[in-house]
Design brief:
mainly alpha, elongated
Amino acid sequence: MQYNGLLLSFPKEIKFFIAAFVIILSIGFFTGLLFVSETSTTSPNGIVENYNGNEDDEDAPVMKFKKSEREMLTIVHTHILSMSFIFFLLGGLVWLTKGSKKLKLFLTIEPFVSVILTFGGIYFLWTGILWMKYVVVLSGFLMTATFTISALLVLYQLCLQPMQRPQ
């Protein structure tokens, strides 16, 4: 089956449907990142503080308490499940674009690795393995970069190349 570039051959109405989905998915994804930036968890130490609390820091502008095991399991569980669906659906669309198999393989597999490293790393950080904060930052960055590149690739091929057919 020829799937490389198949997205280009879809009818205009299906392209609009897919574009609307990718745009709404992106709004949801980047809104989540805005939430992360509002909770001071964009720096390694901010991540530690967000999950392990800062009650020992008398100069902290906002007091935060260590999350309970129930809270941590809820965060890890919901994020791994939801992010897996997000990257599965977006990855399926990436495989239908026209482009390099190696690039597509990276854009569709790396996010799953980053999801495990990010949210597994957050859990291990919560248990006291503090160096995981660097893994969380790096994997979170890679997850965001691959999401952005994938969404832009799909939207580009849907909107800017509307009449091309795969070869």
